[in-house]
Post-transcriptional regulator
Amino acid sequence: MQIPFFGLYEKVQLILTNKIEEFHYYGYDSITEQDLWKYCIDKVWRKRDVQNMRLHELTAGIFGATASEVLSYMQIKDFKRNELNLKLSNEELQGLFHPLKE
């Protein structure tokens, strides 16, 4: 996976690691540094020129992220990705929407 804005990512990697450790402490083990970074770029800073942001702005965005926000973002991204790859036949769709009664 290619990391967007890799130069900035390297500058705040310690902060990302710290936030991920916090998430893991509370039991959110599935979130990685790359997931958090992608969330911040796509959601927290989506209307900003990330390349020209100051370090304290990047830090505030990372520390302000919550595990539930990041997980929701990840689930929606996975759903959209799987939705594009999901090709069911009419028979399979009928089985999903009208299951057989026992």
